[in-house]
Amino acid sequence: MFSLSENHKKLILAFFIAVLLWTYASDQTSNIFNLGEEQAASFLINIETRNLPPDYEIESLSSNRVVVRLDYISYFTSVSKDDIRAFVDLSDVDPGDNLKIIEVNLPSGTRLMGTDPGYIIVKVRERNND
């Protein structure tokens, strides 16, 4: 009956590990040279408002959704819509129209390619304390 010696078993194991490492490295190298081609994705995300002072209230937003375009850095990364947060910081608003840049929190393994729109107009008024 056919039997492998201890050295042959180690050689086969080393070869298998080398093939796995080569496959992983070639995928990562391919990603570096082809950023945005195969791994790009777009998501329609609701815009959150944060840090609104208590004496103000939002009258209107020019848009309540944003298209977020991102690029996967690694083939092993998977992203869903729930992993992405788009928001505007309203900590320094004044009554009337305020132009605010849309900020995006992404999971690790992704890169922001852009947002559409990149900013929104937030109309704020003073809260009535009746």
SSE map:
Elements: H1 6-33, E1 40-50, E2 56-61, E3 65-72, E4 85-89, E5 96-101, E6 103-105, E7 110-116, E8 119-126
Parallel strand pairs: 1-4
Antiparallel strand pairs: 1-3, 2-8, 3-7, 4-6, 5-8
CATH top level of the largest domain?
Mainly Beta
State which percent range the strand residues make up.
Answer: 35-45%
Largest sheet: 5 strands, mixed
Counting H and I runs of at least 4 residues, what is the number of helices? 1
The proportion of residues forming helix, as a percent range, comes to: 10-25%
* CATH fold-level assignment of the largest domain: RNA Polymerase Alpha Subunit, Chain A, domain 2
Whole-number count of domains:
2
How far the N terminus sits from the C terminus, by CA atoms, comes to: 94 Å
| H-E string | HEEEEEEEE
Give average pLDDT, whole number: 84
Do you know the CATH architecture of the largest domain? Answer: Beta Complex
What does this structure look like?
This protein is of the alpha+beta class. 22% of the residues lie in helices and 42% in strands. It has one helix at 6-33; strands spanning 40-50, 56-61, 65-72, 85-89, 96-101, 103-105, 110-116, 119-126. The strands form 2 sheets. A 5-stranded mixed β-sheet has the order 6-4-1-3-7, with no helix packed on it. The radius of gyration is 25 Å and the shape is rod-shaped.
Summary keywords:
RNA Polymerase Alpha Subunit, Chain A, domain 2; 1 helix; 130 residues; 8 strands; 42% strand; rod-shaped; alpha+beta; 2 domains; 3-stranded antiparallel sheet
Short description:
The chain is of the alpha+beta class and 130 residues long. Helices cover 22% and strands 42% of the residues.
